[in-house]
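PT: before anyone asks, these are the final sequences, not the draft ones from last week. 920 residues across everything. Please model them as a single complex and drop the result in this thread when it's through.
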Amino acid sequence: MDEDSRLARWDQRTEVPLALASLAFLVGYAVHVLAQAITDGWRDLCFAVMLTAWAMFAADYGVRWRLSGQRLRFVRSHWLDGLVVVLPLLRPLRIVKLYEAVQRRRGRPRFSLHARVITYAGLSTGLLGFAGALAVYSQERGAPGANMKTFGDALWWTCETLTTVGYGDITPVTSRGRLIAVGMMACGLALLGAVTGSFSSWLIQVFSREDDSASGQGAPGPRNGERPPG
Amino acid sequence: MDEDSRLARWDQRTEVPLALASLAFLVGYAVHVLAQAITDGWRDLCFAVMLTAWAMFAADYGVRWRLSGQRLRFVRSHWLDGLVVVLPLLRPLRIVKLYEAVQRRRGRPRFSLHARVITYAGLSTGLLGFAGALAVYSQERGAPGANMKTFGDALWWTCETLTTVGYGDITPVTSRGRLIAVGMMACGLALLGAVTGSFSSWLIQVFSREDDSASGQGAPGPRNGERPPG
Amino acid sequence: MDEDSRLARWDQRTEVPLALASLAFLVGYAVHVLAQAITDGWRDLCFAVMLTAWAMFAADYGVRWRLSGQRLRFVRSHWLDGLVVVLPLLRPLRIVKLYEAVQRRRGRPRFSLHARVITYAGLSTGLLGFAGALAVYSQERGAPGANMKTFGDALWWTCETLTTVGYGDITPVTSRGRLIAVGMMACGLALLGAVTGSFSSWLIQVFSREDDSASGQGAPGPRNGERPPG
Amino acid sequence: MDEDSRLARWDQRTEVPLALASLAFLVGYAVHVLAQAITDGWRDLCFAVMLTAWAMFAADYGVRWRLSGQRLRFVRSHWLDGLVVVLPLLRPLRIVKLYEAVQRRRGRPRFSLHARVITYAGLSTGLLGFAGALAVYSQERGAPGANMKTFGDALWWTCETLTTVGYGDITPVTSRGRLIAVGMMACGLALLGAVTGSFSSWLIQVFSREDDSASGQGAPGPRNGERPPG
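LR: through. Structure below.
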């Protein structure tokens, strides 16, 4: 109980700094990949930012492991957190949580369940797609025979891959690029499936609610005698 | 309460004119994009029609904001209506609602829930696809290296994109065309997912209903003793 | 009531002949499309078979309209039957029903709900795909610039289209071929969505049933005290 | 009853040896396909391993048929087992079951329902994809006009096929390769649909559970009065 509350307090306090570090990591990586013409000083700054953010993620993982009071079970039950330490590019996915935490503190009415799932999965897909486009682009750029020439191409390729349209006008040709692409396909398929499924459920819900309000409002009387108009 | 009823009356009265304006906008845009050889007089007429329709959408938005008695909350809770004012090409999606309203007034028995979701999502996809094909075609036509040469190509590309087949024989090459395409993919995926999901639910429902009627009719007696034949 | 029973008797009696006519139509069409080198006599026979089958479908539609005692409502509520009269190539989809009717008469235990939906939607997809491959192949064969050269190509194209993989190594280039392809995509998407959805539900059902049997069998006692072992 | 228990004992005893035989078959097939430069002695060993494993599968099928005490009904109700005897490359799919059996014996808490469906369907897809990539590669390698040149290409093609992205940069050109590909598409579609569907359900479940815990923890009091904080 005590450890749980200390863990909860730790989570609450580190939420904002870690989210900022995630953003900083993503921005640093984007500058590192996209800005080719920057001087060495800026390049070193990018690396410093990325390293600092990475160190923060690792420290957070360590502290939380400690506070949990568990040994190897922690690694197994928090494998997603461990993966994020190894692949810090996935970390920005947690920014979505921050947004929600901010809203919760302000006490605003939160969205409905479906809207939140769609928002969460949609934003995750967007961040994942952006990080993936950067990573694949950094591998493909300059590879012999590559047809992904600008970052715009990479973004377009990402969109047609995540929606499983897959025209094939742009495809990764390097082994590493393809490996990252496979990871993106797998995650994107699951996340967009969640978006699609939630949207579908939400639409059906809206239509069945409309039934009820229409039978009470638009018609002179209730149609099936279930609810008296008074 | 009073404002609600005034809003409802406004909605009811403006439904038909706004739907006609939506159709007029879509037709005007289609003529503007497809009819290249028309004289300047006709071209100006197209623009006039589109502008008038647009003004009607904006006025409707303003009046409804007023009537709602809300301030910024209205913008947030009616963001879809705001989007339609900015992108009037999406407005024809509301024609679907008109069709339903007409049916309701006539008092005809409405379709089942699944049928309505399929009809609504299917019609929306069709209108969205047509508007998107027009918009992408207007960007791609004439672009260097484009392989979308006729409007028939654009329609074929739309169908293979919305169903996520994505052969890749025809692909947008301009940045704007690709941006519109991404929007179409996202909407189409969600809408067609709703169609597919509803169709699947409906099919399962039909089959389980068939079970019941078969056990009462085709066999000499009820199979599981639930319903006596008499 | 009386009309209903007459309609039911008519359905029961015409089921087998109409199914055979459907098969004959499909075979006749396949021979007509695929067998190029046959003599004119055989070709005329094919046409005769197809015409006879078509006439049987139309007659069946007419008789059922009569027996229903309805006027225009029949057209609206049986629009699928009307569509089949116009596009007799879709008729073989009813063969699936015949198979089920035969099984029911023999009194064999029928499959579970999910298995039947999967079987029905899967077989429908297969028949639809075969008929569509024939129709598209008959349009594409000989068209300038077409890359669908053998019927094997057409079948391969059908499979990659219906599963929405869409490599794009083979694509229809004629307007008619593309029109048929769009119809196939729409139907295939919905039918395969039903197959996928049912399979998913079935798998989840199997796993949750396994839970129950495992807790009663593999472990020394029930895990959650719900069911005593005795 | 007695036969059931003997069948259960047989299943329990043969589970581990058969799983090892499955693995040996898969490894043997992989070596046979991929290792071109091995001497004839090693090649014969591969064949021997594969034949032995195959014989074990057939013997297991025969024994279980005997023990079941059924005649032709066994073939019909265990058609999946029969298929595995004919296509032993599908056998490794049962390794997944072994993993679960091992876990069950150790008494560890098993995963939740959704996690197990995702794990099972995901692992099955992986094994199916690997076996399919081997089979297609063995057909395509050396075929005239084939663009699947290395096994890495085959794996990449498998991933883009199973996720239905289908770029089309690599496609099978031989009839046999295409036949195997169609089988992979059908199975992959169903299995990945199960993964996507379960993930979607799981995500919605997580979000609705979060609702409950948030209303008890983050806010000063429960929001809807359902659960007192004490």
